[in-house]
């Protein structure tokens, strides 16, 4: 479809051409939206991974009712309907002047991405022997140094997986992005949404294909790393 | 910055065998349970000493070690290393090496990287690190395994790597938390020899936690015997075995025949089950509890058996006994006895040459008053 | 365990996550709730309107109907699928798992766009129907089209809890039932199905609940005349700027969702699905 020569969403595709890809990579609107999406997704991955990893490490050491409650609370964004979150965030962000801004997108996306990091890092910590931290302390390493030299290398797969999920959650997020968009700042999924609802722009099929390929590649990163680690 | 100072502190006294004095002063750890885990303990561990904290599980010995290491915070009291109060110093600044039962090697690092870990944390330079790692691996006889990962080593080898890692930075003292508990019997005794040798060569203070009395007797300069949060008795292995102060100590170390006396006058003679027994004043424990409740303990190897009462030498203490069972131990036999009218269980160790004793035989067991010990019960 | 660790790396590490959650979710949601009961004055009028304005209730009803249809379709497809997964070789099971997870792997917009292409006038679905003799079947712009597209996304949430429940049923019980004279069908309905009920309940609640909040799929594939509750919410917020009314409706959806998910969680079996939600990802809504 994305290689179609026809100017509409016609199916089956007629003729073969790179025209839609050419459109995509020469259109400032599409390129801007891609750049915006990558920027927001990268910052979100960074922030969500940091915040989520810290929370996972903390929760792995805390026990009791309160800790369980906090864990559940932090998971709420996964089950809360995106539209309700989007509406609430939109109303508040209007007042805080965060709509249409990078910090606004990053904060909102981070809030919904943290649970994914929390789950994947918690999973990795499940196989981590906390007693190693005692050994590390006895050998003269501060808690921070112990985290960097012992905990982090041993849970790196969980952290990486969490970062990838956070990136994709943000990169692919439409609902909140639709509410936070401004004429000056749109993410790629929003541009795709526009191209279906407003513009009937067939470039979306090229964008769709690129999106699927990109997401698939990103998802394959940990698999590839695992393959390499095994060969070593 | 703190790293630098600690490196200097230990680096300034290489091979002087001086070690560190560890003083526990009225140390208490209370988790808010029924009784404190460690209850007002005072103990001074001499520089270069091999001190064993011995006791059953839950007696507070491991908590005490964790308090020294800094993994637990004190409820009350102070911990002083070479005159400096470290009660509020976090574990990574105490400069104490520690050996764990579960080895706690870093699985993502090679043997050499594991051993180099504490040196890298102290910012030692590369050549220095390489030299020290090689040296200490030779000390624990693991030269050539530098590039192995822990998973490729046997349990005994892993514990030797952990030992190397715990001593390579010349810590002020080495704390050992049941380090042999996960190993099988043969490996245990081999590593016991190794640990003793390394203690001799390194010359620093070792604090060793175990619940295994044989291990404690075999390794220690002194033993602190723990019982439900307090120290029952401190002394050399010989003192603890031969001169127990309390019934707990006597029972925990080795086998004992126990005759409980309750509150008794311990002047010259006393009567037990109709028998009159002599007392040697030198065998009465100094423990104040002896005045209120006491017991006589006699080691099985100090008990002799004869067939008739009139064979008992003059001045010996004797009791009638029936053979309940005989354990053949090779060089000797242990007779399991039922003693006196109260039918107390007892043991006597007799030479294999001593002749046959059949189950059900009626005998007389006797011992010299100076072989018995009167302890607080 | 040790108080030292508590002090050094316990609760303080949770602060950023909690601050973020509070600032981005709890405060806005709380504010929305506050608006919904205090605009224009302290009143429950906004909630009352849901039942009296004539539109909201219709839309809610339609949403529930579609969610129910999606749930039923997902169960009808998902149960045999999960059953098949328990019966095949581990290799084939892996392939089946990948297939069911495909919607997770494809981007929201790409997937919805693909459905537009497939369901549109002149699209492949229409041509297939034409071959069968039914001309001019257009699913694009209908609730049926929306239901089909949503079912695809929701299938994993049905299959995964079902798979974990079905996989843990002792198959010897079926043989025992057969041995006692039951027909294979009777053995299935009397023994196997009742034992799988936990997974069915979990899957049904999960799919139904998540289906209530779909926005992009109905907005792109449905018709404006047949809007669902999420579209109504969006319209009231961005076009009518009636934050109080939107807030009231949003609160109802949120609370229903959370209560149902908590209930499904209680029933057991959803933990696996929630885990997959987290390690795969939720789509659309």
TrEMBL record, chain A:
Residues 34-222 form the ABC transmembrane type-1 domain. It is found in: Cell inner membrane; Cell membrane. The keyword Cell membrane applies. The keyword Transmembrane applies. CDD domains: TM_PBP2. The chain crosses the membrane at residues 38-60, 72-93, 105-128, 159-180, 200-225. InterPro entries: MetI-like (IPR000515), MetI-like_sf (IPR035906). It is a multi-pass membrane protein. Pfam families: BPD_transp_1. Belongs to the binding-protein-dependent transport system permease family. This is ABC transporter permease. It comes from Actinoallomurus spadix.
Automatic annotation (TrEMBL), chain C:
It comes from the Bacteria. The chain crosses the membrane at residues 60-82, 94-118, 138-163, 199-222, 243-264. SUPFAM superfamilies: MetI-like (SSF161098). It holds the Pfam family BPD_transp_1. Keywords: Cell membrane, Membrane, Transmembrane, Transmembrane helix, Transport. The keyword Transmembrane helix applies. It is found in: Cell membrane. Residues 60-264 form the ABC transmembrane type-1 domain. The keyword Transport applies. It is a multi-pass membrane protein. Belongs to the binding-protein-dependent transport system permease family. CysTW subfamily. This is ABC transporter permease. It comes from Actinoallomurus spadix.
């Amino acid at each position: 479809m994305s290689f179609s020569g026809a100017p509409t969403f016609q199916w089956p595709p007629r003729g073969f051409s790179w025209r839609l890809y050419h459109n995509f990579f020469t259109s400032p609107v599409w390129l801007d939206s891609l750049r915006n999406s990558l920027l927001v997704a990268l910052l979100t991955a960074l922030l969500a991974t940091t915040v989520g990893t810290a929370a996972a490490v903390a929760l792995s050491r805390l026990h009791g009712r309160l800790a369980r409650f906090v864990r559940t609370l932090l998971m709420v964004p996964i089950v809360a309907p995106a539209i309700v979150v989007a509406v609430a965030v939109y109303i508040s962000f209007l007042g805080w002047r965060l709509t249409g801004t990078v910090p606004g997108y990053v904060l909102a996306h981070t809030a919904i991405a943290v649970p994914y990091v929390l789950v994947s890092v918690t999973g990795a910590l499940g196989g981590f022997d906390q007693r190693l931290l005692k050994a590390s302390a006895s050998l003269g390493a501060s808690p921070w140094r112990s985290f960097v030299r012992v905990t982090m290398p041993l849970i790196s797969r969980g952290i990486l997986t969490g970062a990838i999920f956070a990136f994709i959650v943000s990169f692919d997020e439409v609902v909140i992005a639709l509410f936070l968009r401004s004429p000056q700042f749109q993410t790629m999924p929003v541009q795709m949404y526009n191209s279906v609802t407003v513009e009937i722009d067939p470039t979306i099929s090229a964008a769709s294909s690129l999106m699927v390929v990109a997401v698939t590649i990103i998802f394959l990163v940990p698999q590839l790393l695992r393959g390499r680690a095994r060969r070593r | 910055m703190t790293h630098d100072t600690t490196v200097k502190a230990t680096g300034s006294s290489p091979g002087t065998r001086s070690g560190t004095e560890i003083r526990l002063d009225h140390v208490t750890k209370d988790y808010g349970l029924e009784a404190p885990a460690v209850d007002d303990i005072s103990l001074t561990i001499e520089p270069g000493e091999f001190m064993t904290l011995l006791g059953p599980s839950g007696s507070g010995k491991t908590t005490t070690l964790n308090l020294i290491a800094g993994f637990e915070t004190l409820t009350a009291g102070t911990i002083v290393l070479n005159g400096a109060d470290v009660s509020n110093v976090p574990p990574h600044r105490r400069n104490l090496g520690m050996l764990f039962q579960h080895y706690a090697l870093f699985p993502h690092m090679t043997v050499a990287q594991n051993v180099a870990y504490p040196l890298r944390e102290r910012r030692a330079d590369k050549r220095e690190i390489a030299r020290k790692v090689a040296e200490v691996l030779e000390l624990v006889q693991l030269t050539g395994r530098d590039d192995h990962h822990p998973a490729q080593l046997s349990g005994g080898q892993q514990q030797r790597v952990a030992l190397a890692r715990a001593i390579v930075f010349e810590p002020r003292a080495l704390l050992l938390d049941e380090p042999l508990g996960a190993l099988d019997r043969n490996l245990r005794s081999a590593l016991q020899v190794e640990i003793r040798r390394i203690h001799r060569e390194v010359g620093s203070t070792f604090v060793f936690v175990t619940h295994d009395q044989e291990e404690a007797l075999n390794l220690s300069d002194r033993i602190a015997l723990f019982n439900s949060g307090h120290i029952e008795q401190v002394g050399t292995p010989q003192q603890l075995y031969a001169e127990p102060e309390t019934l707990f100590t006597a029972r925990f170390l080795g086998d004992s025949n126990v005759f409980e006396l309750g509150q008794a006058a311990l002047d010259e003679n006393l009567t037990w089950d109709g028998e009159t027994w002599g007392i040697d004043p030198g065998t009465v424990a100094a423990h104040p509890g002896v005045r209120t409740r006491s017991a006589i303990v006699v080691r099985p190897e100090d008990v002799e058996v004869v067939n008739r009462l009139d064979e008992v030498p003059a001045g010996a203490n004797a009791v009638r006994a029936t053979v309940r069972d005989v354990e053949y131990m090779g060089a000797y036999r242990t007779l399991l006895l039922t003693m006196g009218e109260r039918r107390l269980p007892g043991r006597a160790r007799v030479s294999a040459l001593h002749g046959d004793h059949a189950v059900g035989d009626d005998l007389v067991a006797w011992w010299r008053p100076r072989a018995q010990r009167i302890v607080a019960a | 365990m040790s108080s030292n660790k508590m002090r050094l790396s316990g609760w303080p590490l949770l602060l950023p996550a909690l601050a973020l959650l509070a600032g981005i979710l709890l405060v806005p949601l709380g504010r929305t709730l506050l608006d919904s009961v205090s605009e224009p004055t302290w009143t429950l009028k906004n909630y009352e309107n849901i039942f009296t304005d004539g539109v909201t209730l219709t839309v809610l009803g339609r949403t529930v109907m579609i969610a129910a249809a999606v749930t039923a379709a997902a169960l009808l497809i998902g149960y045999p699928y999960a059953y098949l997964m328990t019966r095949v070789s581990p290799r084939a099971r892996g392939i089946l798992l990948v297939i069911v997870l495909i919607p997770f792997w494809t981007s929201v917009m790409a997937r919805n766009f693909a459905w537009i292409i497939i369901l549109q006038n002149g699209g492949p679905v229409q041509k297939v129907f034409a071959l069968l003799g039914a001309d001019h079947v257009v699913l694009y712009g209908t609730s049926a089209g929306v239901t089909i597209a949503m079912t695809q996304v929701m299938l994993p949430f049905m299959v995964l809890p079902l798979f974990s429940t079905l996989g843990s049923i002792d198959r010897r019980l079926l043989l025992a039932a057969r041995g006692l004279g039951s027909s294979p069908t009777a053995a299935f309905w009397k023994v196997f199905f009742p034992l799988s009920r936990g997974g069915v309940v979990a899957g049904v609640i999960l799919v139904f609940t998540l289906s209530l909040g779909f926005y992009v799929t109905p907005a792109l594939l449905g018709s404006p005349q047949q809007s669902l509750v999420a579209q109504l919410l969006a319209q009231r917020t961005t076009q009518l700027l009636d934050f109080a009314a939107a807030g009231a409706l949003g609160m109802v959806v949120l609370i229903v969702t959370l209560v149902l998910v908590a209930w499904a969680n209680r029933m057991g079996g959803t933990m696996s699905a929630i885990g997959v939600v987290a390690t795969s990802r939720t789509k659309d809504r």
